[in-house]
Specification:
Elements (H helix, E strand, L loop, with lengths): L2 H9 L6 E3 H4 L1 E4 L5 H7 L6 E5 L2 E6 L14 E4 L7 E4 L3 E3 L4 E4 L3 H13 L1 H9 L9 H5 L2 E3 L3 H43 L8 E3 H4 E5 L8 E8 L1 H6 L2 E2 L6 E3 L3 H6 L7 E4 L1 E2 L8 E4 L7 E2 L3 E6 L6 H7 L3 H9 L2 E2 L3 E2 L2 H5 L2 E3 L3 H19 L4 H20 L19
Parallel strand pairs: 3-7, 12-18, 13-17
Antiparallel strand pairs: 1-9, 2-8, 3-4, 5-6, 5-8, 10-22, 11-19, 12-14, 15-17, 15-19, 16-21, 20-21
Helix pairs in contact: 1-7, 4-7, 7-14, 7-15
């Protein structure tokens, strides 16, 4: 019998109590601060982290943010917008006020909550995906969420085991990840080389190649039924979109369907985010999808000519040159944002259709080698991660108090 089995048998033989997060943990509020202000006060030598979009965007001194709610205790940060995640911090930090954090007197319990929430990430991602064009979880989603609260001795052992297993998993995947990163850098190098041209290739302002339009913004009550709807994350997470990738639905008027229709060859760009680095990522629609509209946090570029292959467009907006242009042409108010007018001024290299086809063939083959999760290093990394998630789930699965056995069958000897 393991030490954890012994602790469970001793301290909670009849099961574990489940409590709402708001009843067990203290909620911490963020700081009201704009993306422009963060850019203004950036201080690499600062001692305080300012977090937005799940990332450490700025290092600042306390004097830079006199009204900030600075957290100096371990806490679990809940990112409500975009990609949902839970982040454990044990250094001084503050965060934008659309996020929130949880802490309590016992540091072990904070880390335990972190692991519990990570183990239930799919629940929160599903809740976020039902809120409209930009995924977002509301405060009650976490406040009312029930978590197991075993005695501190049991929490301590689980945290110890998971910390150890996390470290071991990291070591096992480190070398694999290094090799995969090297391959990806090699791919990005050749992609940029293939998409970099001399002066003999015509460069055309994108305003001559595309018409630009912002997308649909509607209330939550319109989502969940209707016609296919391309979300912000669909664009951010896919270099190319297929019909099968579009799973969200929205109710639209006939005028909205007509004005915001997405067709094969349309290129979608992320229009706004917490940072300039997340703006201007593109995805091209490669299928004829029928009735379909797109969200208001993206820009649709509809081709006006037949000079560009859709498959080529899936690659040509990933170059270093285009990324530098986007980040230097973002506006900063409450968030970083990009406009169709800014995009229209970028001069895009347009080789012949025959050259475009050859480039697409080469990059498709190279990308399949680097990215296919069914072969090689990516598959091995994925297997390690699944193994870790399996054991984490087993350690964090309890019967509620009053049940006779634990769901993981850890107490078969009891």
């Amino acid at each position: 019998m393991s030490k954890l089995d012994e602790l469970i048998k001793e301290y909670c033989p009849d099961g574990v109590e489940y409590k709402r997060i708001k009843d067990e943990y203290q909620r911490l509020k963020g700081t009201t601060i704009t993306a422009g202000k963060m850019k203004e006060i950036e201080n690499p030598r600062g001692e305080i982290k300012i977090i937005a979009g799940g990332k450490t965007v700025v290092m600042a001194n306390e004097s830079d943010i006199p009204n900030a709610n600075i957290t100096r205790v371990p806490a679990v940060l809940v990112q409500s917008r975009g990609i949902i995640d839970f982040i454990y911090y044990d250094e001084p930090f503050t965060f934008k006020n659309e996020m929130w954090a949880y802490t309590c007197k016992e540091n072990v319990s904070v880390k335990f909550l972190y692991y519990v929430l990570k183990n239930n990430i799919s629940y929160f991602q599903d809740a976020a995906s039902r809120t409209g064009s930009l995924p977002q979880i509301s405060l009650p989603i976490t406040e009312e969420f029930k978590v197991p609260v075993p005695p501190l001795e049991v929490q301590c052992e689980i945290v110890r085991v998971l910390d150890s297993f996390t470290s071991l998993t990291a070591e096992l995947t480190k070398e694999l990840a290094k090799e995969l990163t090297a391959r990806k850098k090699q791919y990005e190098y050749y992609r940029n080389q293939l998409l970099s041209y001399d002066d003999q290739i015509e460069k055309i302002p994108m305003g001559e190649l595309f018409d630009f339009r912002n997308g649909l913004s509607k209330g939550k009550e319109y989502f969940g039924k209707g016609i296919p709807f391309i979300r912000y994350t669909d664009v951010y997470n896919h270099r190319a979109l297929r019909k099968k990738d579009i799973t969200a639905l929205v109710e639209c008027t006939d005028k909205e369907k007509e004005n915001l229709k997405v067709s094969r060859g349309d290129v979608l760009f992320t229009r706004t985010s917490e940072t300039a680095e997340d703006v201007g990522w593109s995805s091209v629609m490669l299928d004829e999808i029928g009735e379909c509209v797109f969200n208001g946090f993206t820009i649709k570029a509809t081709p006006k000519t037949n000079k560009l292959l859709p498959e080529y467009c899936a690659y040509c907006f990933t170059t270093n040159d285009f990324r530098k242009y986007v980040t230097s042409h973002c506006a900063f108010t409450t968030r970083a944002s990009l406009t169709g007018n800014s995009l229209s001024e970028y001069k895009l290299s347009v080789p012949s259709i025959m050259v475009q086809k050859k480039i697409v063939d080469v990059l498709d083959n190279f990308e399949s080698i680097c990215s296919d999760l069914n072969i090689g290093l990516p598959a091995e990394i994925e297997a390690r991660q699944k193994q870790y998630e399996f054991y984490r789930d087993a350690l964090l699965t309890f019967a509620e108090k009053g049940e006779t056995i634990f769901k993981t069958d850890r107490q078969t000897e009891a």
